[in-house]
Design brief:
alpha+beta, Ubiquitin-like (UB roll), 1 helix
Length: 78
């Protein structure tokens, strides 16, 4: 998967994980351009792996919400 400034797909994820204050909620979003053979599960796993790599405490967290959808709102006129 290539991470672009404006990828072909928008994603968001919400996790609940331990923090110094107890349990906290963490929200992240971005865009990604999945490979042609990637599935939603592939995208989810790559995003979660990347987040845990950057924020190790999220490894003990649970995912409360996740979505990935095409980033383009309107199709260009043909």
């Amino acid at each position: 998967m290539a991470d672009d400034a404006q990828g072909t797909h928008f994603w968001f994820i919400t996790l609940q994980a331990p923090s110094p204050a107890g349990l906290s909620f963490f929200n992240y979003q971005g865009t990604v351009t999945p490979g042609r053979d990637n599935t939603r599960l592939d995208v989810f796993n790559e995003i979660r792996k990347d987040l845990v790599g950057r924020f190790p405490h999220l490894g003990k967290g649970v995912v409360l919400a996740f979505d990935v959808q095409p980033n383009q709102l309107f199709r260009p006129a043909s």
